[in-house]
Design brief:
Elements: E1 3-4, E2 7-8, H1 9-36, H2 44-54, H3 58-61, H4 63-75, H5 77-86, H6 88-107, H7 114-144, H8 164-188, H9 191-222, H10 228-232, H11 238-255, H12 259-281, E3 284-286, E4 296-297, H13 298-301, H14 305-332
Antiparallel strand pairs: 1-2, 3-4
Helix pairs in contact: 1-4, 1-7, 1-8, 1-12, 1-14, 4-5, 4-14, 6-7, 7-8, 8-9, 8-12, 9-11, 11-12
């Protein structure tokens, strides 16, 4: 089998897609977390500042999701078709929530009426929270495994998605994004809103640590296949240890009010948790709870080697451009948020 840098093409594409999903989680994670916290701000000015903190970057951050979806379709079409058909209803809700989040941000300040702005504030918070919970629910089910048959057809029902483990992962994702978003907001604000957010950040960190502990224990006890790779390669246990140290450093930096460093660590824990998820799944992408033989591996699902080579070249050209644009936007809009007549 053809290799590049010592990795076969399906594995390399597995890493590329994982990197894109990680980029989305890190970047859009704080946007979604800020949205989930929106109704905690009571004053009109505070809500406008919170919106304008993510205003220049939220739509650009969603580009990573679009690229990841396109890469999954191009690299592993069988997985793309299977996952979208299995999670048809969750993904439809996800798209509706994405639409409402966008129009909530754009429409909120178009009219001065209090009821109008409150309506879109509620929509913004609800859609951001729903997106996060749905992402966590899909992730939790992929970790847990899905009942599919030999033809890769889903044999469960809607309630299958709402197993206790998937629900726990959904709330863990929500707690992580709320923490990530609150740290970002506290870096972008000042005065009374800053003081309020320092309390909110501390509460979000406690919520996340609780969910992190519960999710870690549940995975070790109830999802044994996620630890198989770690048992075969003991050196990989450094990653869970790194995850614990990263969580502790988030809390330590929050307590010291070193919020930029805390934001770096909250970005790191998002990446580390997704890496642990990828290691636990590899070489599978969809695990069957009906029969392990029905699971879909990257080798079974991959496109032809020629297609993978061509798309890898496109990814090598396009990804640096997206990264450069992202860095440019964040650098341009660095610093505290100042409201003006052009603000949301």
């Amino acid at each position: 089998m053809e290799t590049i840098l010592g990795l076969d093409l399906p594995t390399l594409w597995f890493l590329v897609i994982g990197g894109l999903i990680t980029g989305y989680g890190v970047l859009d994670g704080f946007d979604l977390g800020a949205g989930s916290l929106h109704l905690f701000f009571n004053k009109e000015e505070s809500r406008r500042i919170a919106l304008n903190a993510i205003g220049p970057v939220w739509d650009g951050n969603e580009v990573w999701l679009v690229i990841a979806g396109g890469a999954l379709f191009a690299g592993f079409p069988l997985v793309y078709g299977t996952i979208l058909s299995i999670f048809y209803i969750p993904f439809m809700l996800f798209l509706v929530a994405l639409i409402f989040r966008a129009i909530s941000i754009e429409f909120r300040s178009k009219e001065p009426m209090a009821w109008w702005r409150k309506m879109w504030d509620i929509s913004y918070m609800a859609s951001s929270t729903l997106i996060t919970l749905l992402l966590g629910l899909v992730l939790g089910n992929l970790i847990h495994g899905i009942p599919i048959n030999a033809k890769h057809e889903f044999t469960g029902d809607l309630l299958t998605f709402f197993n206790p483990y998937a629900i726990l992962i959904a709330f863990t994702t929500l707690s992580l994004f709320m923490l990530h978003g609150s740290i970002y907001l506290v870096m972008k604000t000042e005065n009374r809103l800053y003081a309020k957010l320092t309390v909110l950040v501390n509460n979000c960190s406690k919520f996340f640590i609780l969910c992190f502990i519960l999710a870690s224990m549940s995975t070790l006890i109830y999802i044994p296949h996620m630890t198989d790779e770690f048992k075969q390669n003991p050196w990989l246990f450094g990653l869970p240890l790194l995850a614990v140290l990263t969580v502790l450093n988030i809390k330590r930096n929050i307590d010291s009010r070193k919020y930029f460093t805390a934001f770096v660590f909250s970005s790191c824990i998002t990446a580390i948790l997704l890496i642990l998820f990828a290691i636990g799944l590899y070489p599978n992408i969809v695990i069957s709870t009906t029969n392990p033989a029905y699971s879909i591996s990257i080798y079974e699902a991959a496109s032809s080697p020629k297609s993978l080579r061509i798309m890898l070249l496109m990814a090598a050209i396009g990804t640096p451009l997206v990264i450069s644009y992202t860095i440019f936007v964040f650098w341009t809009f660095r610093g505290k948020v100042k409201l003006n007549e052009m603000s949301y």
